[in-house]
Every structure is written in C-alpha cells, then in structure tokens.
Amino acid sequence: MATFIHAGTMPVFLILQVHRTRAQCLVAETTWAQRLLTSKAQLLNTSPDQSRILTRPSVRRMQRVGLFALTLDEADRVGLGLQVRCRGGCQAITVQPSSLARRFGERMTFRGVRQSLKRCHACGDANGFRLQPAAVSKPGWKAPEGSTLGLRYRDGGWFHRAEPYDLAHHELAANKQCASHSEDHGEYV
C-alpha cells in the first residue's frame, strides 16, 4: 500500500458493505472477492479464498475455515456453537462458546479448541467439529439461527452466498444483503 501511495497511484477504495461483527466480515470478504473475481476484476489479495475463482462448495468451506478463527467471545456474541462429534460414534454434543471460555479463556479460538479436543475423552477416537447455532449467553444479543451473523443455517451448516448482482454498472450498495441459504449439507472438519 505504501508503494502505491509513494508512486502517486492510489488504489480506488469502495465500501461494499458495513458489518458489526468480525464473523460477518470474514464471510463477506470471501463473498465479495468471489463476486468481483467472477466479474473479471483483478484483486491484489493473496489469500486462497480471495486470489482465484472458487467453486461454491469451496467458497463455503473457506468461509467455515475462516469462522474457526473466531474467538470464543466473538462466536458467543453471534450465536455460533461448536458441535463436537466422536468419529467412533460414542457421543456428539453442541457446546456454547461461553462454556468453552470457562475452560479455555475468552481469547481462545474455535481452531484452538479443536486442536485441544482432537481426541474423544471416552474412547480416544478422533473428534469431528462443525459450527452449529447455539443460544447466546450474553444479554442484549439476539442471534436466532445466526441472524446477526448474516448467515443462514440449513442442513447442518452456516452458509453465506452473494445474491446475483451486476457489477458492470458500478452500483455497489453498502446495505445490500448477500446472505441466502444453499443446498450444502455441511461437513465435519
């Protein structure tokens, strides 16, 4: 960025959407990058979900991977829980982030929890993990079915997909909603 500024060529910045949570931002970044890439825009982003055009299942997978970077406090505020399922079949539970925070601390991420709980405590088999809706434990926050996250919950997963929109007209509205459901069935990671 500094190189562009010193060279006298300042890139064009547009505010595409405004979000109140990091979770919404993580999902929207991938959505907008894919939307711009499919309209032939050249992006300087180097992250895998923003540097090349992906299939819809790959976009959803990348968004789920991004959401695993949320801290337990952030996840609690938007109503995401973590389902932990023993691959051996002995148990499956959905845990609120506030419950996990009591054990691991609020700054721990879902990714860190997943690393800590790799094995089932009952049988020692590997655990699978999936994001699920959870009751929000903080007063004042409402997230039935992920509504504050801007995602839709369906068939075992959270999904965010851009609405069809013609970028050729350069009319990108900041208040345009881009959440809808998909037919994906979610997967354990």
Q: How is the biggest beta sheet arranged?
A: 3 strands, antiparallel
Number of strands: 5
| Outline type | elongated
Report strand order across the widest sheet.
2-1-3
Structural class: alpha+beta
Strand content: 5-15%
- The number of distinct helices, counting runs of at least 4 residues, comes to 6
Give a short synopsis of this structure.
By secondary structure, this protein is an alpha+beta fold.
Description:
The chain is of the alpha+beta class and 189 residues long. The chain has a domain at 72-148. Helix content is 30%, strand content 13%. It contains 6 helices and 5 strands. The protein has helices spanning 2-7, 22-38, 56-67, 72-78, 97-104, 110-116; strands at 80-86, 92-95, 127-133, 152-154, 157-159. The strands form 2 sheets. Strands 2-1-3 form a 3-stranded antiparallel β-sheet. Strands 4-5 form a two-stranded antiparallel sheet. Helix 4 (72-78) runs antiparallel to helix 5 (97-104). The chain starts with a helix and ends in a 30-residue tail after the last strand.
How would you describe this structure in keywords?
189 residues; 13% strand
